[in-house]
Amino acid sequence: MSALPPTLESCRDQPSVLGAYNMCLRLEERIQSEIDSGKDMTKDMVYCRILGYLFHHLPAPAVNGNFAQQITEISFDDEKLLELGKHFYEHLIKVCMSLAHTQTPSSHWSQRSINDLIDGITNEAPNDHQTTKAHALIRDGFQCVVTKLYDRSFAWGKSELRKIVEEKGLRTVKTQCAYILPQSIKENVTLGSSEASFLPEMDFFVIDLLDCFGYDSLWEVINDGNRYELQSVMTMDLTVHDDFNTLKIWFVATEVPNTYRLEAVDNYWLIGLPEYVTFSTPDPKMYPLPNPTYLTIHATCAKVAHLSGAREYIEEMLRCMEDTCVLAEDGGSSKLLHEAILSSMHCTTSV
């Protein structure tokens, strides 16, 4: 967890934004004072710093617009500020990290199943996890998009790939279909002409937050009703997938189209990985590339989760839940119970 920077250089000529940011600094100072006096204010500090670091990592139009305005309208009500930070924690960062605890089914490909899948692919969008994975593998060249190592099962079952692997002595890996954002955001959503006819409460809040960030076009994407949109997935080997889901690594757009710089919470997680990753596709219409907006949202969540201490706090709570068999009778396990309930709400199982 890192203390908030004392200044907001990107908005130094915008008094209203600076005023809103200073409210976060004042709240941080007050919480730190209580921590120094012996109080356990860890979670309040996480909520406060989530708000503060969003000023540094949200797109500029969002900071200058709805986000700063929300902070200003709250004024000096510390409880409402912390409640807002809690909403971002529970409905955005926690939702993104829930991917790390989503069961992704293994795929066992035979020569026949590979050929059947490839031959059976049509111009229609994929409508289940297995077909989405197949589409993504074809688009991504049967490789992890980061390491460029071939999928072990596909290389074994597809004679051309197997020949390349054997002749060049290439290492292969088991891959998974990695979802950039949680499927629950799109799951069970149907929209009418002007409003949602059904939308789970927590996911409605996620979309509302993303609208606040300037991503109002996501309503149109969600309205397509396709939970398995190809633009929302990438092919990744298991280790890279886990680091991506736990917000340890993320993609940052560069000036070169479809080329991203890999960043991480620490350089340790980048050892052996390329500095830049370029996405490509054999057919942009049939196999569209990962959505840049989705990647930006994931990167923002990852940076804020790391700097605010939210990611570390969530992982600590999860470790404690794994080690705890019985809840304390005196209510001392209430925080663990709350985190467990949140985790169960956000987790989904791909089928």
Structural notes for this entry:
- The chain has 351 residues and is mainly alpha-helical.
- Helix 1 packs antiparallel against helix 2.
- The strands form 4 sheets. The chain has a 3-stranded antiparallel beta sheet with strand order 7-8-9. A two-stranded parallel ribbon has the order 1-2. Strands 3-6 form a two-stranded antiparallel ribbon.
- The protein has 14 helices and 9 strands.
- The two termini are 36 Å apart.
- 51% of the residues lie in helices and 9% in strands.
Q: What is the typical, i.e. mean, pLDDT?
A: 79
Query: Radius of gyration, Cα only, in angstroms?
Result: 22 Å
- Summing up helix and strand content along with how strands pair, one would put the structural category as mainly alpha
Task: Provide the β-strand percentage band.
Answer: 5-15%
Strand order within the widest sheet? 7-8-9
Order of helices and strands: HHHHHHEHHEEEEHHEHEEEHHH
Largest sheet: 3 strands, antiparallel
Shape: elongated
Please tally the β strands and state the result: 9
First and last CA, distance: 36 Å
Low-confidence stretches: 188-202, 344-351
Number of contiguous helices: 14
Helical content class: 40-55%
Can you summarize this structure?
The chain is mostly helical and 351 residues long. The protein has helices at 15-36, 42-57, 60-74, 78-97, 111-120, 129-139, 152-157, 159-168, 201-212, 218-222, 238-245, 292-308, 310-323, 334-346, and strands at 150-151, 172-173, 175-179, 190-191, 196-198, 233-237, 249-253, 259-264, 276-278. The longest helix is centred in the first third of the chain and has 22 residues, at 15-36.
